[in-house]
Design brief:
The complex is a heterodimer of chains A (112) and B (115).
Chain A lengths: L3 E3 L4 E4 L4 E7 L7 E6 L6 E5 L5 E3 L2 E6 L4 E6 L8 E10 L4 E5 L3 E6 L1
Chain B lengths: L3 E4 L2 E4 L4 E8 L5 E7 L6 E7 L2 E5 L6 E7 L2 E7 L7 E8 L10 E2 L3 E5 L1
Parallel strand pairs in B: 2-11
Antiparallel strand pairs in B: 1-3, 3-8, 4-5, 4-9, 5-6, 7-8, 9-10, 9-11
Classes of the chains: A mainly beta (112), B mainly beta (115).
Chain lengths: 112, 115
């Protein structure tokens, strides 16, 4: 089983729509969760951390479900500029500490 | 704009060449990373330096040789690469490299083509 698995997409949505997708992780000892966004041929950029109680940043809402071992990202009122690949990042126990593992990404395309 | 600077942005090299990728950050971070990313795939971790010591080597072939001269600089020395090594090479930094709640800050990457 992969350490981090994501809805592959692509999600093709009209402007103004709401889109949501999930990411599952395999290790119950994971303790840090992030969403990064990556535009084509660019570097990943941190979108938001994901906290136990869920958190919101403008139009973006992230949730964590520890019991079922998944995190989610919801984008409200989609903009054309939200078109990107969204990478789920989770930390995993490593011999001396933790290391971060990336999901394969969910592609979102917002159309006019 | 990214606070992690990578050079060069593009590199074309032959299989017998020796080249180096460079990465620099001035955020006071003590951990630096090399990732490799192929098209339409997620970044794959190659190396982690924490406090200037190599803490993670993900079984990377010896034709890739990392070097961390100080806490702000990270190099990746390349020698006798194969065409399948063509990829985007990303440098990142974080506060300490423990992986606990740490956010990664990425450079814009070096697009490497091996002919």
């Amino acid at each position: 089983r992969k350490e981090v698995e994501q809805d592959p997409g692509p999600f093709n949505v009209p402007e103004g729509a709401t889109v949501a997708f999930n990411c599952t992780y395999s290790n119950s000892a994971s303790q840090s969760f992030f969403w990064y966004r990556q535009d084509c041929r660019k570097e990943p950029k941190l979108l938001m951390s994901v906290y136990s109680s869920g958190n919101e940043d403008g139009r973006f809402t992230a949730q964590l479900n520890r019991a079922s071992q998944y995190i989610s990202l919801l984008i409200r009122d989609s903009k054309l500029s939200d078109s990107a690949t969204y990478l789920c990042v989770v930390n995993f126990p490593h011999p001396d500490d933790y290391k971060l593992s990336f999901g394969a990404g969910t592609t979102v395309t917002v159309r006019a | 704009d990214t606070e992690v600077t990578q050079t060069p942005k593009h590199l074309v090299m032959g299989m017998t060449n020796k080249k180096s990728l460079k990465c620099e950050q001035h955020m006071g971070h003590r951990a630096m990373y090399w990732y490799k990313q192929k098209a339409k795939k997620p970044p794959e971790l190659m190396f982690v330096y924490s406090y200037e010591k190599l803490s993670i080597n993900e079984s990377v072939p010896s034709r890739f040789s990392p070097e961390c001269p100080n806490s702000s600089l990270l190099n990746l020395h390349l020698h006798a690469l194969q065409p399948e090594d063509s990829a985007l090479y990303l440098c990142a930094s974080s506060v300490s490299g423990t992986g606990r709640g740490e956010k990664l800050f990425f450079g814009s990457g070096t697009q490497l083509s091996v002919l």
